[in-house]
Structures are given as C-alpha cells and as structure tokens.
Amino acid sequence: MMLCRATNVARATGRRTFADGPLLKTMLYDLHVERGGKMVPFAGYELPVQYAGAGVLKEHTHCRAPGKASVFDVGHMGQIKWTGADRAAFLEKCVVGDIKGLGAGEGRLSLLTNESGGILDDTVITNAGDYIYMVVNGACKVTDMAHLEKMMAENSDMDVQMNYLGDDATLVALQGDGAKTALQPLLPDGFDMERFAFMTGVDTTVGGMECRVTRCGYTGEDGFEIGVTHTKDAVAVAELLLSNENVEPCGLGARDSLRLEAGLCLYGNDLDDTVNPVEGTLLWTIGPKDTRRRTEQGFPGASNMLTAEGKPKKFGRKRVGFMGHTKPARPGADIYSADGTTKVGTVTSGTVSPCLNAPIAMGYVETALGKNGTELTVDIRGKKIPTKVAKMPFVEPNYWRVPE
Question: Which residues are listed as membrane-spanning (predicted)?
C-alpha cells in the first residue's frame, strides 16, 4: 500500500537547476530595490548584498548593537510540511538528529546525510504538533527535494506526506538584540515573549497576518525566522518590521560576516557531501554520548562515522577556526605547518571580523593539528602568514535564554 505522498513538489524539482536560466526574485525584490539594495546572484535568486547609504560594515554593526535589529530576506530557502503518523520515524531515516523526541513546538538543527555519511544539507526541523516543519537551504532545495522523494519511494509503506510550500509561502528573518522588542507589538495580545525559548516555534499572526514564527537564526544573536503563510503578505510583514526605528534591512554581505563570527557553517563552503558530521565537528547534531540516536543509529551513513557503540570513528581532518593572521584569508587558501613546508588544510570561509577588528577564518586541518592554539601558517597571495587554530564562536552568542 502506497502511503507516502508528495504535494507541490514539481515547483521545487521540476524547474531548472540554479546553474541555468534566469535568476528568480523573492517576494521582497521590489522592496530591496526601493531601499537601494545592490542585487547580486545567490542560490539562483537576486538578493541584496548590501544597501545604499549603509554598506556591509554598518549593517553588521547595527545587527550586533544593543536594542537594534535587522531584517533579512531568506525567501530563497525551502519550507516543507510533513504529515502522517510516521512523519518523525521517516525523517529519522533521512537526518541524523532525534526527531521523535522533539516536544510540541521544539526544534533542532539537523543534517541530511547520504549513505557514506556525507552532508547533503543542514536543516532546522520543528515539531509543530500536527505536522513537522522543515526549512532547507535555498541552494540545496532542488536536490534536497529529489533526495527526499527518493527516500519516500524507498519507504513507501510508511504513512508520511510531504508538502513543499514553494511559492505559497515565504520566509523573513529578524535578528538582533532588539528583535524581541520589535516583534512583540505585532504578535497577538498576551503572547509571552519571555517564555518563548530559543529553537522553538509557533503558528501565530504577525500584524494580523498568518505566520509561523521560530526563535532561531543565523547571526549568533537573538532573533526569529518568520514563515509568512501567504506570499501576498510578505511585503506587509517586512514593512511592519522595518517601520520600527531600531530596525534596518541587512544584506548578504553582513549576513555572511555575522554567521562567521558566530562560528556557523555555510553549506557549499564549510560543508558538502564529502564531509561527514564527525569531520565537520557536528557530532552534537546526532546527540550526546549514549543517547538513542548515537546507539540505535539508523540514519544514512551512520556506520561509516560511528562505531556500533555510538562512538565517533577517527578521521584525518576536522573543521576548526583560525585567528592571528594579519591579512584576510579567503576560501580556498591553503593552510600549512608552522614552518610553512607541509600543506595540512584549507580555508573554507574567511573575513575581517567587524566586532574584533581582526581577520577570522574557518576551515579544515589534519585532526592531529586541530587543537586550539596550534600554530600554523596560511598562504595569502603567495606569502605564508602565521595563524593559530582558534575556538569558535569567535564572538560570544546572544541567544535568548528563558529566565529562571
């Protein structure tokens, strides 16, 4: 009996790949242009890298400033609703995390993996009560949907339905210390913002418009991702947020420097299908030692990265942070031993941190050299510059903690 079913999938998997054809526009495209957004290609869409009169540095520091908040267009990302009695069990065949154990409203970051354990995408999954809500990366959503359809076909006896929201919904992020203050008056009377925990979500309204609000983000700050149920409301929601004097729009440039300061990965740079969660220093997404997912396993590639007892296997490289180099190290820069004679790794992300006023980077090195403080060198324009393995996040996170 075929119980698995996918709906609205054609719009994700039937259209062109992002490598060809015209760029797509999010529902906020006109708003970006009106506000002076410099539009660039990203994940198959035209999105603002920065705004006139501001720029990456000002946008970055605004998001980090006390009492301030920033609006990001993340409408290129994919949203999926999962229903059916076996929805959690099915997803545990696809991702590494504990989905069955999520309480109502609870969410977690997880990883889609292939049979060798390589990471296909990182995703936030939330138990929304009568359905499971999943957000995937914009650059990966076409291949993610094809992969998930394949997994459904292989598990056709399970009662699970996938509804890709496609163009029927969009996503807007509000990030920063002032995000809660800016959003509170737009929520229904009596909404308890103080008890609304980080990595939880709820179906509610924003300015009277139907939305799914999740307290999470990609900056290291407190914040929210707002799934606008009807695309016709997307501009109105964004304009309501931006009407607050402490809220400004923020582009891709600052989004990247913010997430790197927070030690967060960018799929395609820091993670890909050749990297498994152990190499990527993401074992925590599977669960702590002796927890169910570590011992039962059952997700793709589990036996390639974990022993039968759930202990991580040894690999030759690991993801780390770098600091101490005096010039910016960009993606692709080679990491060498301290004496500069032996290549030992590669930079996958790098920038100058606006908060630290110093270069920071992320990448992979040989596991034996991955301890914080290890002295290395990085090749920057043909010159070996001293650097050190550094603890991440580089900047202390400001995620919301529910008061005791």
Answer: none
